[in-house]
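Exam revision sheet. Question 4 asks you to relate a sequence to its structure. Input first:
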Amino acid sequence: MKYLAIPPLHLLGFIGIMVIWGFNFAMAKWGLREMSPMLLMTLRFAIVAAVLLPFVPRPTGRWREILLLSFLLGFLHFAMMFTGLDGIDASTAAIAIQLQVPFASLLAVLFFKDKLGWRRLLGMAIAFAGVAVVAGEPRLAGSYLSLGLVVGAALIWAVSNLLVKALHEVSGWTIAGWMSLFATPQLALGSWLIEDGQLAALRDASWLAWSAVAYTSLAVMVVGYGGWYWLLKRHPVSVAMPFTLLLPIFGAGSGVLALGESLTPGLLLGGALVVVGVGIIVIRRPTTTEPTAERV
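Answer key, structure tokens:
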């Protein structure tokens, strides 16, 4: 064991975080059975803000960027992601959202003049082909708008990640806390304008729905990202990023094991292509696709 590049406890930490993030897809689906998408996200960000704000400083001089991020990531990304997730199975969403990695790589080329070699082009093509294979399954007939929302959410995440990287001098906890505070009323307003039945949903919500709210806020954000930030201080991004390739595997697995979703040949093939394609990109340019912005 002493020859391992990563201490065993750190290795378990990386894998455990991927399990937490991956299982979020199944937990979110449980919550969406009783709550509308933006209502669920309103509660999530309200909890995150309440937990983090007493312990983080004000982002003095960076309020404009935090407000913009609260709209792009807090409102737009998560509203699209969870509205899309509400209309498709968790396994498909866990695979499709991984397009955020090739999107981030493309944006790095446009904004940071990053070089786009043939290997990354190949990785992008394989990843998009994988999502196309999954989209071609008969069970997704009539659900293409939902799938499109998830893919759109992946693009918005990539844009948001660029903004977070520009805030490199501001801690991740500070960004998360203040972004959550500003995103909460935006999501509440969106829910009020577009959704209905919120009061009845809150009144009749079961312990499982409230468990989903707690999991998506406390487990995914506080525990998951807390552990991620802690590990990134001790290991280079090139070591950490390959572990994110486990995310679609655990995400799709959560749908199959917890929700009884079908593990079809198309899902397996498409998922494998996405993992291979994303893997090529991550291994070639780990810092480009580092999840500095909150995922899922």
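Marking note for examiners. The radius of gyration is 18 Å.
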